Amino acid sequence: MDALMLILFGMILVICLIFGIYLTLYNKIQDYIIRINEVESIIDNNLREKYDNINKIVSIIKANEKIKLDKKILEEIVKLKNKKISNFNLDRKLIETTNYFTNLKEKNKEIKNNEDIKLLFNKIDDLDELLLVNKEYYNRNIAEYNKLIKLFPTNIVASICKYQEKLFFDKKDMSDDDYNDFKL
After folding, report:
1. Is 175 strand, coil or helix?
2. Which pLDDT band, with edges at 50, 70 and 90, does 133 fall under?
3. Count of Cβ atoms closer than 10 Å to residue 118 Cβ
4. CA angle, 122 as apex, 119 and 123 as ends, to 5°?
5. Cα(184)–Cα(179) distance, rounded to whole angstroms?
6. What is the sign of the dihedral through the CA atoms of 100, 103, 108 and 110?
């Protein structure tokens, strides 16, 4: 009877130990998921604010009849609001648009001297700095998360919970043979 109780106690102890290890590893993965989701939300808000500032610049420039704009660029900016695109693609489009308006500002004195546009460009510059920092933080956490998904023993927890490897903010996939996703 004592031997049976000892074996039973030992099994309960081993099960509790395994369950404790599982919970610890699960929580470690969850910590990275929470960090990634939080920074995704911050990036999303920054991109929306940048988009709004670019729209304000468009409105100011449209109001001035002396300034000629590329209608294709303006149409793309307006269409962005209704498109369902990823934050990565939105970021790329906003960078292209910001570069276009920066070049336009350098060539046109009326835009360059407009105080409202200066203020909006300063806000966009501040948002770009925030986006850069947040993208770096996101990518660091994605790298750690992907490492956890691949390495033993957290890969066991990840496979049980069906966690998948995530792409970096710039959609680079380090585990495939597609080298085209490294083009800028």
Report:
1. coil
2. very high
3. 13
4. 90
5. 11
6. positive
